[in-house]
Design a protein that fits this description.
alpha/beta; 6-stranded mixed sheet; 4-stranded antiparallel sheet; binds adenosine-5'-triphosphate; binds magnesium ion; ABC_transporter-like_ATP-bd; AAA+_ATPase; ATP-binding
Length: about 270
Amino acid sequence: MQTTSEAVAVVNEQRSQESTSADRGRIDIQNLQKVYESRTSQFQALKDINLTIGENEFVTILGPSGCGKSTLLRIVAGLEDLTSGELTLDGEDIIGPGAERGMVFQGYTLFPWLTVRENIEYGLKLKGVPTLARRGISSHWLRIIRLEKFASSYPKQLSGGMKQRVAIARALANRPKVLLMDEPFGALDAQTKVEMQEMLLEVWEKEKTTVLFITHDIDEAIFLSQRIVVMGAHPGRIIREFRVDLPTERTADVRELPAFLQMKRELAQLLKHD
Ligand SMILES: Nc1ncnc2c1ncn2[C@@H]1O[C@H](COP(=O)(O)OP(=O)(O)OP(=O)(O)O)[C@@H](O)[C@H]1O
Ligand SMILES: [Mg+2]
């Protein structure tokens, strides 16, 4: 019989083959428009969106409430149709949700009737991954999110930050090419938020996943990203892009660097004037 560590080794081997064999997570958006129509009116939610997110890049979309951030992310997730334009992942049209795109949204979307471990294993079970291999992967993630002791707990027994960690682990256990995150830390207290941001960066470095992250928190956008895309409202559109020139290693003291503070001022100014 296969042991857990053998099962994990097999899965890791499969993963390394997967990640070298093909593109992993390049998103191309060209001339994308989104118009919501009702019987009596039309509303242009997104206008002329052009954006490319490279393999393993961490890009944040920053913008005021109502500018269309969630709409754009939901379209990339395949949960919403685009009105016109092109949208591809590794050259393939996105026409619906898919396992290669993991999602973490605000508010905890865990299944309340499943334990923490079962929540993490959910997508793997759907894919038909055998029990032992599933167990190996969920144990790996329980360690990373430091919730080994809560493997058999139910979501209602966890704090907000703990639930959000499980949601991230659940999305990443499927080894998606792209991780789509819509204000995932918006409801957390300041300290927990910082811990979650650091954990996310650690995971991103290890997993080589492309991340498209949404926030309206300027500090969070700078701390996490390699690139920040700023959107404006009425209609929802991209107004500017910034490359974040900060050390790859993002520790707490990055927030004190002159470059960080300068960028913070610039972004605040930009958002104020839009
Ligand atoms: N299903 C829908 N039908 C009609 N209008 C919609 C629909 N979903 C969103 N909108 C409109 O599209 C615009 C963008 O909404 P969206 O949720 O994408 O904004 P957002 O940038 O994510 O805002 P927030 O920061 O508050 O989450 C809003 O004006 C909203 O009213
Ligand atoms: Mg939103």
